[in-house]
Amino acid sequence: MLLLRHASAGERLLSPDIDRFRPLDPAGRADARQLVWALADRKLTRVVTSPLIRCVETVRPLAETRRIVPEQRRELLPDTSLESVLDLLDELSHSTLVCTHREVFQTLFAGEVECEEAGAWVLGQLGSLWSPMEYLAPPTSAADPFSRTALSR
Fold first, then answer.
1. What is the mean pLDDT of residues 29-47?
2. How far apart are CA 112 and CA 109, in angstroms?
3. Helix intervals (H) in the chain
4. Which of 6, 39, 45, 104 is the most exposed place for a label (fewest CB within 10 A)?
5. What counts of helices (H) and strands (E) characterise the chain?
6. CA 134, CA 72: separation in Å to the nearest integer?
């Protein structure tokens, strides 16, 4: 399973109600387009995303290229509970791309795992525990966008 942080959407807006509608900025749109190539070697059969526009826009080019209809799930919103996101991950196949927010990464991994905008972690599962295994750098910010060694938790 790939856990992707949405691409760059500029500065956070002061009001959370307005910030929910913040789209990708030009750098974010470039990363979203490049994800098509950066993840070309990954088997993906499903795309699940936060319903916020910055996540939807991040996965749109990849999903369209693969003819996958992205599923929007509220369990991936920034203020989701740990239980909600874990329940969702447990129901998904290992060939799923999941697009979410920095806050969800912090919730899942107790703030111990970082992920850049448009970066992703390959997740592995041991029993009921999800663990970050391999980091995939954002496609337009790394010389080798396909992988970096995973950081220890």
1. 97
2. 6
3. 16-19, 26-38, 53-66, 82-91, 102-108
4. 45
5. 5, 6
6. 25
Amino acid identity of residue 34, one-letter, is Q
Give the C-alpha separation, 133 to 89, whole Å. Answer: 15
CA 76 to chain centre: 9
For residues 96 and 85, what is the distance between their CA atoms, to the nearest angstrom?
A: 14
Helix (H, G, I), strand (E, B) or coil at 116: coil
Q: What is the CATH number of domain 2-136?
A: 3.40.50.1240
Total Cβ atoms within 10 A of residue 42? 15
67 secondary structure, DSSP code: T
* pTM of the entire predicted model: 0.87
pLDDT number for residue 10: 78
Q: What is the pLDDT of residues 132-147, one digit of tens each?
A: 999 999 998 654 444 3
Determine contact, residues 50/6, Cβ cutoff 8 Å: yes
